[in-house]
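Case study 2.
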Amino acid sequence: MAESFGVGGVVCGWLRSSLLALPCAISSVDMEKREDLNSILPFLPLFLRSSALFWPSQVLEALKALASGPAVSRVRSGGVLFDSILDLRDSLGLSSGELAPRTASGYALFFDEMMSGMDSRVWFEEAIPGMARLLLRLPSLLEAHYLKSDEMFGEGKAGLRFMGPQEPGLVFLNQELIAALLSCAMFCLFPTRDRDARCPPIINFDVLFASLNRNGKHSQEQKVRCLVHYFERICLRMPTGYVSFERKVLPRESSDHGVTYPTAANWSTSTVPLCSFEVFSSGLIEDQPHEAIEVDFANEYLGGGALKWGCVQEEIRFMINPELIVGMLFMACMEDNEAIEIIGIERFSCFMGYGSSFRFIGDYVDNKPYVSVGRRKTRIVAIDALCSPRMWQYKVEGLVRETNKAFCGFLDQSMYKCRLKWYANSSKQEKSTGISENENRSEVEGNSDSESSQVMDSQDNVGIATGNWGCGVFGGDPEIKSIIQWLAASQALRPFIHYYTFGEAALHRLEEVRQWILLHGWTVGDLWNMLVEYSDQRLNRKTHVGFFAWLLPCNKPSDVRHTSEQ
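Prediction:
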């Protein structure tokens, strides 16, 4: 049988002759014929032969030594650990030159100087052997994963695979497999050659360790502390839940399978009422106690600078919930009509601060209950805003792009039609919502009332927890972004938005604006049209004030619409 090689797709002749298959193949899974596995194999450090995934023999022996503890492996320091990493990479045909400069000094600095003596002993005597045992099991964990995902979702529907742009779908992983893949990242075993912009980011930890410096950014050290704490936790007690990663796509062409990419006209004519909107001047999205989708202010490449120099909202989330990092392995960059939703992620760390002030402050016990198929009741959606949009964010094209990006993230395509029917019945409206399209409404009517009721009973309490998405380093207008997210959540039929302002000065009147808009009973279309009118005036320099100041009446009756004041 032919051999396939995950390490860059190439292996030297001398290495090929020494490969030994780990005896873990599951006969009912023909691994070599799996399209999902073959799509991700070039990004994995494993090899495939005779329908079995395996490590090369040299890697196998080295991992067995590490799993036996420092008495056998002699790995008791950061410097020796990195030497072992280089040996593993060499056995996989990976060049040490592919790692970031100063990676070796970073491993030595953290584990030999920044970490206390007691913590260091725990790391080398317990965590490193535990991670090595996970890596020894990685081939069998992967094969069992494909078998289980086929059983649960159908063949090839939810197995680990490369998910490129415009490829909606689900990857469903158990937490033990995630831990094994992240152990590969700690040991810098993922291949890096032959990568281009279409490929997902590299998730080896070398750049993060290379950035450590005695006089450098303390936030980098704190990020490493979060990751080290995660490995200590999972080696002490392996979590047993599941995590799903879904690539969500709003089709640009008309489709019978769901809602398509809305136009400006769709937004303008929507009659959907605005959802509840609550403003929080303090608190954090990840600490919110309600049933809500938590927004990740994402980079187009999932994770952004989490494994590099970044330390803002997305990067911090990836440090306190390290299982998110594995999504970077197989998710290509998002396009304008895409979002990524993750359900079931566990939080491991407490923190304080933001940016340069970020600090790991200890263990976090995640008590979120479990929902369907063993996933925690934590829902995160990654949506990437326009970067440095300047005046383009006030153009209709910019408004459509940003509102649709949020709408894609907030929308549940599988439930939307039933929810629309429930909304239509409860509000006694016969008109189309605009975005849903008349043909979608007619399809909804084929569902039973009891089905709609069951959907709403199980879903209508899931709102949105968000904040200043696309602002800060991305340069978006906080006033515009808050309104855009309100529009998107309302049109997605979410029951509420909980908006965390993080003390943003530009939003000090947000509560006043919220009350004023709700007082008028506006629909999504009404608020959209006001936003477009303001943006047009801003572009044409007819106004220089922010949207809130433009919208709110100034010593005028509250029932006078702003358009009559211009």
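The first helix runs from residue 13 to 16.
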